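so my prof wants the structure for this chain in the tokens format not the other one, which i didnt know existed until like an hour ago. anyway here's the sequence
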Amino acid sequence: MKVAATLIALAGVANAFAPAQNVNKGTALSAIDDMAGSTMPFKAFDPLGLATLGSDSTLAWFRAAELKHSRVAMLATTGYLVQAAGFHFPGMLSSDVSFESLSAMKPLDAWDAVPDLGKAQIYFTIFFAEVVSEAKGTHYTKGGDYPTIVFPNVNFASSDPEKLKVSQSRELNNGRLAMIAIMSFVAAANIEGSVPVLTGNPMF
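here's what i got, hopefully its the right format
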């Protein structure tokens, strides 16, 4: 439960990374090689053939899901490392919980120590950000832009199509690595010896 809660809590701020838009809104399934994120050494890596399921709208949904999960994972990995290093905000999180006390705990234990009202506020923020990003303009499954940052409205994307595709590929590749990283962190924290390199680390 605490693992799921941790990942859900981080979803609301996942849009803090540079937004990504459709490189080619009319992309056919046969042209997956041309999509952002299709890079070496595993160009168009799709062993389960998920890209061939459904229509172009289905493929756009898959890409949006990967993008969101990538952003969540990057924030989750960064947050876990920051918490594990002992960095924290000054002052109190609530009337009886200080940020300093949370920083002394393992990251997943710190989430458990957050008051229920605080968790509810985080869940609401996640819900609000998701609704705003999904209801904004033409939906990405109908040819619109992929989900972008909700607040603050910052866009680091280049107007040059080639540079934009490179930036999108970098974001996706970094996100894929982050997904592996946070899954490893969670496994190490819950299953002793599951990640040998992290065995014995006090934060896992």
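also thought this was worth mentioning. Residues 1-29 have pLDDT under 50 and may be disordered.
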